[in-house]
Automatic annotation (TrEMBL):
Residues 377-402 are annotated as: Disordered. It holds the Pfam family Fy-3. It comes from the Eukaryota. InterPro entries: Fy-3. GO terms for cellular component: cytoplasm. This is CL004 protein. Residues 377-389 have a biased composition (Basic residues). GO terms for biological process: regulation of mast cell degranulation. Residues 393-402 have a biased composition (Basic and acidic residues). It comes from Casuarius casuarius.
Length: 478
């Protein structure tokens, strides 16, 4: 069929037009290749100009040309259709495969035949949660989340106690060994003991990491199943036990055991609010709040279940799937990890409470790393094609970038989503360099450009509140 179609594409036919000019009878013959790709009006004008034809035959020539092209095109279509039918009748074409191809084409191009879009589990759960958090069951949801939070906090406290005891015991053992160094013990004995201590710490940390991961997975599954069941029960008007199900007595709320110095001290906040209008003709109003606080205070949950904390959590939960999200800017280095600095502190806060809606912080960071590696590979391949050979300085820079393709550049940022933080839904991790830390920053600094791009993302993705470190530093100095 393809070969026949190819022959039809290269077939030529002669267009013959007879007309009279005075006593002369003339014939115009023009070879045309079918299917005709050129516009008929343009072809008609070209023939009139090329052959210097009289204007009295202009309209008749155009009608004849249109009629000829239309008739011959229909003949070609009919011929191809007959050949296709013969191929089906003779068994050269599988009729089932042909039917599947037609069905697929109709589903992809015709809206009435297209399959309805199937919502994912995450979308269904988001809709269910949004309905429940705006219903009388909202207090029940928050109380259940608080109980899960207390449970994870107690596990973390037990982990910290065990790790502290292990380090103290290992420190005492190392002190004894160091006292005997040079007498009955050698450097090899010290190194061997240090390796044993490191291995013991790794084993204990891995044990608690697995236990916390298992506990959060169980909590997430139980919570989501309970939310779906509660939503179904609320839809059933004949269910008389639903009123008891959404009631939570104060005695049912678990209070965490404060110990080992893990108490969040509440200090009096110093803040000042301003209202500004930006724009020349179409002014927009913005509310600014200058606040003395640690950036992570917007993320931490308080372990005591007070009404003020509960209202904060309720507001964050009710706006989780809304057009009024809250964001936070964290200043980080160029490594996508959670091993040091404020990245480690932020990850610790995220792990203190199970995220029932989004992947954990470590899973999100792994996804970001894969995206960065893919983007770097595409960017490097494009730059090699466009620029070719470069000088030595640029070669050194390109080699440095190739060695650290998993790192991001100053001014770039990545985003993580959270439902388990106190007042934050979205965290922007903005990469900054030493210029910001030293105070040598200009209006064209990558950090300023990155902050500008963050604000653009906020405007296009319904993030109406964003917290930014003052002067782009986390620690104020003289």
């Amino acid at each position: 069929m393809k070969s026949n179609k190819g022959k039809a594409c290269t077939r030529e036919r002669d267009f013959v037009y007879k007309f009279s000019a005075g006593n002369q009878h003339l014939v115009l013959t023009v070879p045309l290749k079918f299917p005709v790709q050129e516009n008929i009006s343009h072809l008609h004008g070209h023939l009139m100009l090329l052959h210097n034809l009289p204007c009295v035959i202009e309209n008749d020539l155009k009608q004849s040309l249109n009629k000829f092209v239309e008739e011959e095109t229909i003949k070609d279509y009919d011929r191809e259709a007959e050949m296709a039918l013969e191929a089906v009748k003779s068994g050269k074409v599988d009729i089932n495969q042909l039917a599947d191809t037609w069905a697929k084409a109709y589903k992809e191009t015709m809206l009435e035949y297209a399959k309805p879009e199937e919502t994912s589990w995450d979308e269904d759960f988001a809709d269910v949660y949004h309905d429940l958090i705006h219903s009388p069951a909202s207090e029940t949801l928050l109380n259940l989340e608080h109980n899960y939070f207390v449970s994870i906090s107690e596990l973390i406290s037990e982990r910290d106690v065990e790790l502290k005891k292990l380090r103290e015991r290992q420190g005492a053992e190392m002190d004894k060994v160091m006292q005997e160094l040079g007498k009955s013990l050698t450097d090899q004995d010290v190194n061997s003991l240090a390796a044993q201590h490191f291995e013991s710490q790794q084993d204990l940390e891995n044990k608690w990491t697995n236990e916390l991961k298992q506990s959060t997975a169980i909590q997430k599954q139980e919570y989501q199943e309970w939310v779906i069941k509660l939503h179904q029960d609320l839809k059933n008007p004949n269910n008389s036990s639903i009123s008891d199900e959404i009631k939570v007595q104060p005695s049912q709320l678990r209070e965490s055991v404060e110990g080992n110095g893990r108490i969040y001290e509440e200090q009096r906040l110093l803040e000042e609010s301003f209202t500004i209008h930006l724009g020349a003709q179409l002014k927009t109003m913005h509310n600014l709040r200058l606040l003395r606080a640690d950036m992570l205070d917007f993320c931490k949950h308080k372990r005591n279940h007070r009404s003020g904390v509960k209202l904060h959590r309720l507001q964050t939960a009710m706006s989780l799937y809304s057009a009024s999200l809250c964001g936070l800017v964290l200043l980080v280095d160029n490594r996508i990890s959670s091993y040091s600095g404020i990245k480690r502190d932020f990850a610790t806060v995220c792990q203190e409470c199970t995220d029932f809606h989004f992947p954990g912080i470590q899973e999100q960071l792994e996804i970001v790393q894969k995206v960065v590696l893919k983007a770097r590979a595409q960017r490097s391949s494009k730059s090699k094609k466009h620029h070719g050979n470069k000088n030595n300085g640029n070669e050194d820079k390109s080699k440095n970038i190739e060695r650290n393709q998993s790192n991001i550049l100053p001014g770039e940022f990545y985003i993580t989503r959270h439902s388990n933080l106190s007042e934050i839904h979205v965290a922007f991790h903005l990469c900054v360099d030493d210029n910001v830390r030293s105070g040598n920053i200009t209006a064209r600094d990558p950090a300023i450009m990155g902050l500008r791009n963050i604000l653009k993302v906020c405007c296009t993705h319904d993030i109406t509140t964003i917290s930014i470190p003052l002067l782009l530093v986390h620690d104020m100095s003289e």
